[in-house]
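queue> holo job accepted (zinc ion)
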Amino acid sequence: MIDGRFELVGAAGPTHFFEGLTAATLSHGYLFAGPAGVGKKTFALRLAQSLLCVTPKTTLLGYCGTCSGCTRVAGGVHPDLYVAEGQVKIGERDGTGFHVAEEATARDLVRQLSMHSYAGGWRVFVLGDVEFTREAANALLKFFEEPPPQVVLLLTTTAVARLLPTVRSRLVEVTFPLLTNREVATVLEREGVEPDVAAYAAGIAGGSATRARALLGGEGTMRDAAVTWFFETLEGGNPDAAGWAARPTLEEGLEVVKTLTRDWLALSVGGTEVPLLARDQAERIGRLPRRDPLAIARALGALGDAERIARTNVSPALVADLAKMALVATSAAS
Ligand SMILES: [Zn+2]
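queue> job finished
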């Protein structure tokens, strides 16, 4: 028996909650609810690893980090761990065995749910920010009618209102609060960000590591798509927003657009002396047309409204249209 490790920044409440559970008291389904970038998915994967770790441990929560179960989870190849994000539709695509799917199908999911454990222990399903079609939800409800033993569903969502009530009512809801600025900075530092930069980004990221990463930039096609969309929109073009305005990346994409707008405003007011957040885009922001700073500030407010709307059922394409209108309106006011 060992005391397993369970390292996570933040999420003290959920950690405490699961520490009080045993294999016997664990439910079949949990809904991890909370804003983007506060550790829901990371927690779900660590919980999955805790269940799939084969080293005997004193508590439910915790893993050894070195056994065959842990190694497979860490490598993303554990046959009893199913990870899916995006839409869950029925009959769109088929697959076998473990896979990481952007678009999982309900039929695939249901078959996976009925399969026996490969390692003879738990089977864990991590479904991140999925949007169920009604058929898919019905298929999932069949699982809850007669759940097989040692199967756990872990769903994460930024908007519980988007889940069908029938699915939501079967899940035990666990709320993940915003991170503190210190916690966001710690997450960034562990990813290799310089401490002073991490502290700066954490200070304006509002408790979300995802937002902080979006502020800092870095690689990633979503950010590139949002950056390109922002500049082409302001340069009078009609760019396609599909590269960032999709459900899983919508809020993060909007954050990128807001960051660039904030930098544009800062440059308009303070000239070239002000420090920019999107440092890698400084030159292109400097070449943007001069606009009334008040108009840019209004656009920033409208982007905030779009962000709130993005958390509802409104389609991502419509949210992108709202963002575009906000940016284009700055020219009318000049
Ligand atoms: Zn282990």
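queue> Residues 53-55, 63-64, 67, 69-70 surround zinc ion (CB under 6 Å).
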